[in-house]
Fold:
Amino acid sequence: MKNKLLRITCALFALCMLLAALTLSVSADTTKEWSISKDRTSISNGTTTYTLYNAPNDVYWLPVKTLYYYDVTYMKGTDEEKDFVYTLQSVNATSEILYLEGTFAAGIYVSDDARAALEAFEREENVEYRIFRTSDAYAQSTLKDSTVQALKGLSVTQNVDVTTMQKLKSYNVVYYDESGSLYRQIGILFYFADGGIGFVSFAHLNNSHFDAYGNFSFRSGTAPVCMIEDEALLAAVKDAASSTKDQTPEESYETDAMYLQMMQAVSIPLFWVLFAITGAVLPTVGLILSIVWTRSPKNKKHPRRWYVPLGLCALWLLLTLTIFLMMVI
Amino acid sequence: MLRKLLKYDLKAVWKIWIWLAAAALLVAIPGGLCFRFLNSTMGESSAFFLLQLSAVLGVLACMLVIGGFLVVTEILVFWRFYVNLFSDEGYLTFTLPVSRAQLLLSKTLNACIWLLSSIAVITVSILEITLIVQPAAIGELFKGLGTLITMGGFWSVLWFLELILIALAGIWLSVSIVQLCITIGSIIAKKHKILASIGIYYLVNMVLGFAGQIFTVVGLFSAVGAIDTVLSHVSEAEAPFFATLILLAAAVIVATIAYFIHTITLGKLERKLNLA
Structure:
C-alpha cells in the first residue's frame, strides 16, 4: 500500500511538472528590421512597404488619445553608414500611417491601402471635425458635421484688425483623417469682448494672413470675420467649446507591447497551472491520503482523526471550484 | 483532562513569561523617550553628542529586549515541549491517564496561546513607543482604520475576521512544524536530540523558504500578467464576495497543512517514540 501511494503521489507530481513545462514553451515574435530606400521615399519592415506621403503644408501630425512608438534606432539602406532614427511613430500598432523623424529624413510614410484614405482626407471626405483651444492642441472635442457646414455657410460680417484679436480666447476648427493621426485647419473661432463669437474661415484668407510657418498671423492687417448670429449655431459652438477635454496621448512602445504579449503568453497558462496545482492537485492528494489513512490498519484505533483533513480538503476543493467558476463564467 | 494539562503547561511558562512581558512593556517607555530625543536633536551640535550616543544605546537596548522577548517565549514553550515529552520527564508524562493526542494538543495550544500573547505585548510596546515619539500617528492610524471599515462596511469586518483566521492558522502551522522537527530529531538521534532537532528545523526552513520564494516569485509574475484576463468575468458587485472566498481559501489551506503536520507528529509520537 505504501509503495502504491508513493507511486501515485510521484505520478501526480510528474504530471504537474509536465503540465508546467508544456505551458511554458512559447515562441515570441522577433523585432522587425526596418530599411529605407536610398532616395528616402519609402521604408519597409520586411513585410509592408510605406511610401512617402507628400502632405500639403497645412496638414499636421497630431495623434491624440494613443501614440505608439516602434522599436527602431537605425534604418538600413541609406547612403550614410549609420543613420539614427529619432522616432518612428503611429497612432496605434496597427495603423498604416507612420511618422518618421530621423537625422536623414522626416515625413509621413503610408502604405498603399492607407494612401487612398489620405486622398479622401485631402478632399475633406470621411473626416471627423474637432475643435481645440489654440493654446492647447490636446484639449479637444468633436464638432458635428452640420455645425461645421453651418459655419462654412456664414457670410463675412466685418473685417477686424488682427492685432486686436491676438489676446482673444480662440478655438481652432480642424478636421482629422479616419485614423485620427493627421489634421487640417479650416478656421478659427474667436470670443470677442462683447460676448459675440466670430468665425474666421481659411477659405476667405490668402497668403498674407499667414506667417512663414503657416500659422494665422496677428502681425498686421485685417481678417474677414463671420459673426455667428444664429442662436442654435451659437449654442452648438459654445457646447463644443465647453466640452473640450485633455486628450494627451497615452504612449506605448513596441518593445513593451512585445514583452507584454510574451508575458501574457507565459503568465496566463502559468497562472492556471499554479491554480490547478494549489487548488486541485494538492487537495485531491490530501483527500486521497485521508481516505487511505482512515482505512489503514495502522490507524485502526483512531480512524476518525483523518475525517477532519478529509473535510478540510473537500472544503478546499469546493472553494477552488467556486472561485474557478466565478473567473470563467 | 485536557484542561488540566493545559493549565499546568500555561502555569509552567507563565512564571518566566510574565517578567519578560513586564520588561518589554516597561523598556518601551525609556526606549520611546530616547527615540524622541534623537528625533528632536538630529543635526544639532556636538554638545549633545554624549547624550545622543546614550540615546542610541537606549534605543538599541529597547529593541533587543522587545525582540528578544519573542525569541525567549518561543524557546520557553518549545523547551517545555521537548523536556516534557522527550527527556527523562517523558517517562512520567506518558504514564499519565491521558492520550498522546491530548498531550500534543495541550502543548500545541500552550505554544499558540503564548505566541499570541507575546505578539499582543509587542504590539502594545510598539504603540507605547509611537505614542511617545509621535502621538498624532496613533490618531491617524485609528482614523485610517475607521475609514477602511466605513468604506468596506460589512465586507471589511468579514475580511478582518478572515485575516485573523489566517494569522491563527499560520501560528498553528509554524508551531506544528517546530514540534514535528523536535519529534523527528528526538526519534532519530539517541544522543544530542536538541542539536538534531535544530538541524532538522533549519533544513526544513531552508527547503520551505526556497520553495516558498520560487512559488511567490512565479505566482506574482503569473498573477500580474494574467490578472486582467482572469478577473474579466468578475463584476464589481461580485468583487467583495470573490475576495472573501480567496481569504477563506487561504485560511483553509493553511489550516489543512497545519492539521496534516500535527497529525503526522502525533503518529510519530504514538508509534515511533522510544525513550529508552
Q: What stands out?
A: Confidence is low (pLDDT under 50) at residues 25-29 of chain A. Residues 5 and 289 of chain A are 8 Å apart (CA to CA). The first strand of chain A starts at residue 35 and ends at 36.
